[in-house]
């Protein structure tokens, strides 16, 4: 049987500060002009380098090159991937712009593979909505551009934003799988380290002994608060209104506490040693997730003596 | 200066198999877990899609009470370099170096775009296969890069030991006779992609000579094998170890382990291992090994 797996998409808009060189390069693209930097040996680099690799001097001498260039090498893409410049088949290419000594990477829209070749003359197709970003070059296309197409270059761009979106399939280990499937039945299972005999919930490699977990042990849904904090600070995505309590709960039969919410009691009455029980969501809503337990709340038992959880501080 | 040798090697096609890989490499080195002075790993959160993914791997070490540990976001061959320097500095006598990566958790062809220049290249999402094709075409290579070469799941581990410590449990430690790494410019148009100047420079720094008996080269794509042999100045007299695939973040370390095994088994007196990281052989490490100190 396959272990549980679930899709996960991670997305983040990276904002990057641009220095004086790339800031002017991106401003140039916004205004339909391409700037390169000239190193001490006289070579013009596009995209521009910020420092001379030989003299190590900062490069501030930016020179304009042509929006027309020549394909140096290429790779055909039959099925474009998410985020790439074109959503129909195209060629990646290294393109040396006229006036530049180094080629740059971009997409070339030739329609079909038989039209792309080394030596092909191509020109920039500008994005209709420039923002001061490498994507202001929508792609390249066969042909040559008129000599002068751009406007006066305005202020340097200071920040560029690049959205990053990645997709994963998270697959659980055999131990995690067993733990999550038990939760779907309203049970909490841990596993005992074969070396030190401690019971880990959820099951994991024993960090003291570095050995795989052994005997499967069912623990109760009652436990002791070993330590806690009162959350007073609001944050994005918060589901409860502060103040509320997050505690470490040492379940009876386990040797490591789990973090959870303590509700049903004013936050100023939560204390170390408080005995609590799990409050499960409606059985109809259970699935293979720790969220089946909504929170813990005091169960009326006398406080546990400090010695019983002192090892877990 | 201390002599340092490889005294153990293990690998697995499963990135999650660290506990087993540690057991195997320690037993091959004849050391117990608590006899390792320094632990160093190579991996990447971008592969796993989890923040600080290397921290959970530390569990497999048995890190309570605390251990001395470090991590690089590169192929674990560079973690080996860090461990080598740590031993040279006299801060450790033994080290266990490991790498792991689960290339299959995400779309590797896209994920690898994020190791390119973040201003002018990564926002275009160039896929790794296409970048390799650009390089292959410049070399007029017949071999078309394919999805199979892209990267696999895996884990590997190597044990290092200094001086007499290395000979205590091993008749034939694989002594590191030279090790160096270099980086070429990140701009794809800033270097001749049919060469690898950083590999050539690292080979010179490591003291590699063309009469080496055995070579284990880390070439994610087939056309890079020829490029690299040229860059390292190696000819047809060298016995090249078979390609064992590009296990993400552990493939380079595994080349060092494979070359060391040739020495430890007595099949060769001298060997060279190469590891690469980054796009299109941008970063290169060369490690020469010998049977005598």
UniProtKB/TrEMBL annotation, chain A:
According to the entry, every stretch annotated as the ChsH2 C-terminal OB-fold domain falls at 63-126, 217-281
SUPFAM superfamilies tied to this protein: Nucleic acid-binding proteins
> Is Coiled coil set as a keyword in this record?
no
InterPro entries reported for this sequence: ChsH2_C (IPR002878), ChsH2_Znr (IPR022002), NA-bd_OB-fold (IPR012340), Thioester_dehydratase-like (IPR052513)
- Domain (ChsH2 rubredoxin-like zinc ribbon): residue spans on this chain: 182-208
Keyword annotations from UniProtKB, A to Z: DNA-binding
- Give a GO molecular function annotation for the protein: DNA binding
Gene3D superfamilies attached to this UniProt entry: 6.10.30.10, Nucleic acid-binding proteins
Asked if the Swiss-Prot or TrEMBL record annotates the protein with the keyword Transmembrane helix, the reply is no
Question: In which domain of life is the source organism classified?
Answer: Bacteria
Disordered, as annotated region: 289-313
Record protein name field = DNA-binding protein
Q: What is the lineage of its organism?
A: Bacteria, Bacillati, Actinomycetota, Actinomycetes, Micromonosporales
UniProtKB/TrEMBL annotation, chain B:
**What SUPFAM superfamilies does this protein's entry cite?**
Thiolase-like
Q: Which domain of life is it from?
A: Bacteria
InterPro entries reported for this sequence? Thiolase-like (IPR016039)
The record ties this protein, via PANTHER family, to: ACETYL-COA C-ACETYLTRANSFERASE, NON-SPECIFIC LIPID-TRANSFER PROTEIN-LIKE 2
What name does this protein carry? Answer: Lipid-transfer protein
Source organism of this protein record? Actinoplanes couchii
């Amino acid at each position: 049987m396959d272990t549980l797996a679930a899709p996960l998409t991670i997305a983040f808009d990276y904002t990057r500060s641009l220095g004086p060189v790339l800031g002017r390069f991106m401003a140039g693209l916004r205004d339909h002009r391409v700037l390169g930097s000239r190193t001490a040996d006289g070579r013009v680099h596009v995209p521009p380098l910020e420092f001379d690799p030989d003299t190590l001097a900062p490069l501030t001498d930016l020179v304009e090159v042509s929006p027309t260039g020549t394909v140096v090498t290429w790779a055909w893409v039959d099925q474009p991937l998410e985020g790439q410049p074109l959503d129909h088949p195209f060629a990646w290419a290294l393109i040396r712009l006229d006036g530049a000594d180094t080629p740059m990477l971009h997409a070339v829209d030739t329609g079909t593979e038989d039209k792309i070749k080394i030596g092909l003359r191509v020109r920039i197709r500008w994005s209709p909505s420039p923002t001061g970003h490498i994507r202001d070059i929508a792609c390249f296309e066969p042909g040559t551009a008129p000599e002068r197409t751009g406007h006066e270059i305005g202020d340097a761009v200071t920040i560029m934003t690049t959205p990053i979106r990645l997709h994963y399939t998270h697959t659980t280990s055999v131990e995690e799988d067993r733990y999550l499937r038990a939760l779907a039945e309203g049970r909490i299972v841990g596993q005992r380290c074969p070396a030190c005999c401690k019971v880990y919930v959820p099951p994991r490699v024993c960090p003291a002994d570095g050995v795989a977990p052994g005997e499967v042990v069912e623990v109760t849904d009652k436990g002791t608060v070993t330590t806690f904090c009162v959350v007073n600070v609001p944050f994005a995505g918060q589901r409860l209104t502060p103040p509320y309590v997050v505690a470490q709960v040492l379940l009876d039969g386990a040797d490591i506490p789990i973090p959870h919410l303590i509700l049903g009691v004013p936050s100023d009455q939560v204390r170390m040693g408080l005995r609590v029980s799990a409050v499960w969501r409606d059985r109809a809503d259970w699935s293979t997730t720790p969220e089946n337990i909504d929170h813990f709340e005091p169960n009326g038992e006398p406080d546990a003596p400090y010695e019983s959880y002192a090892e877990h501080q | 200066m201390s002599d340092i040798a490889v005294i153990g090697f293990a690998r697995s096609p499963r990135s999650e198999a660290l506990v087993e890989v540690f057991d195997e490499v320690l037993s091959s080195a004849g050391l117990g877990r608590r006899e390792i002075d320094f632990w160093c790993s190579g991996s990447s959160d971008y592969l796993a899609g989890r923040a600080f993914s290397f921290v959970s791997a530390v569990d497999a070490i048995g890190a309570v009470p605390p251990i001395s540990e470090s991590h690089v976001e590169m192929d674990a061959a560079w973690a080996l370099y860090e461990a080598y320097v740590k031993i040279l500095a006299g801060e450790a006598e033994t080290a266990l170096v490991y790498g792991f990566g689960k290339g299959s958790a995400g779309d590797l062809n896209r994920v690898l775009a994020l190791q390119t220049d973040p201003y002018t290249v990564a926002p275009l999402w160039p896929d790794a296969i296409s970048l390799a094709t650009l390089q292959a075409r410049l070399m007029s290579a017949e071999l078309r890069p394919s999805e199979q070469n892209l990267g696999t799941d895996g884990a590997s581990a190597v044990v290092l030991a200094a001086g007499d410590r290395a000979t205590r449990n091993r008749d034939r430690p694989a002594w590191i006779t030279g090790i160096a790494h270099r980086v070429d410019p990140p701009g794809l148009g800033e270097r001749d992609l049919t060469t690898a100047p950083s590999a050539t420079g690292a080979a010179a720094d490591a003291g590699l000579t063309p009469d080496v008996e055995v070579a284990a080269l880390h070439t994610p794509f087939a056309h890079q094998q020829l490029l690299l042999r040229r860059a390292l100045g190696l000819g047809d007299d060298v016995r090249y170890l078979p390609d064992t695939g590009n296990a993400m973040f552990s493939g380079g370390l595994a080349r060092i382990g494979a070359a060391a095994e040739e020495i430890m088994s007595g099949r060769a007196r001298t060997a060279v291992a190469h590891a690469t990281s980054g796009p299109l052989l941008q970063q290169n490490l060369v490690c020469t090994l010998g049977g005598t100190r």
